[in-house]
Amino acid sequence: MAQRLVVRRLLSLTPKALPPQGSLAPRAPPAPPGRTFSTSASCRSTFNVQDGSDFQDRVVNNPKPVVVDFHAQWCGPCKILGPRLEKMVAKQEGKVLMAKVDIDDHTDLAIEYEVSAVPTVLAMKNGDVVDKFVGIKDEDQLEAFLKKLIGA
């Protein structure tokens, strides 16, 4: 309730009612030097699949190798594996991409790729599944999985 009143009050202020620039009104502290906003490598190399045609365009037809993480919101192991896998994919510096597929939203893709348990991770290259695992893996196993996919 109090927040609504504050917002209404702020919205009702006209430019004339605002305090002058040089006044003693409290101001947000300046940003620390050297800090800027940018997207991390994991944001650029990881994406959520929206639908079947999005999967076709961004995964199957992608010239880069793609790791496909089939997961579910209710899956405990998925919540552990997902961030771990994203971190490892980001370390590959764009050599591989990661697609995240929620099996509850995209059951058709889960059925098509024979996903019977989550988390299931597929390695796809040139539209073909070249490797697969089910369950949690530690970082060393994930790194080996990715290096095998990249061919390093």
Please compute the radius of gyration using only Cα atoms.
23 Å
Largest sheet: 5 strands, mixed
Q: In terms of structural class, how would the helical and strand content be classed?
A: alpha/beta
Shape: globular
In percent terms, what proportion of residues is strand?
Answer: 15-25%
Number of strands: 5
Q: Count of helical segments?
A: 6
Low-pLDDT ranges: 14-18, 35-42
The sequence of SSEs as H and E is HHEHEHEHEEH
Distance between the termini: 58 Å
Structure explained in plain terms:
- The structure is a single chain.
- The protein has 152 residues and is of the alpha/beta class.
- Helices cover 39% and strands 18% of the residues.
- The protein has helices at 2-12, 41-45, 52-60, 76-91, 107-112, 139-150, and strands at 46-48, 66-71, 97-102, 120-125, 128-134.
- A five-stranded mixed β-sheet has the order 1-3-2-4-5, with helices on both faces.
- α4 (76-91) links the parallel β2 (66-71) and β3.
- α4 (76-91) packs across α6.
- It is globular and about 30 Å long.
- Residues 14-18 and 35-42 have low confidence and may be disordered.
Relevant terms:
single chain, 152 residues, alpha/beta, 5-stranded mixed β-sheet, 6 helices, 39% helix, globular
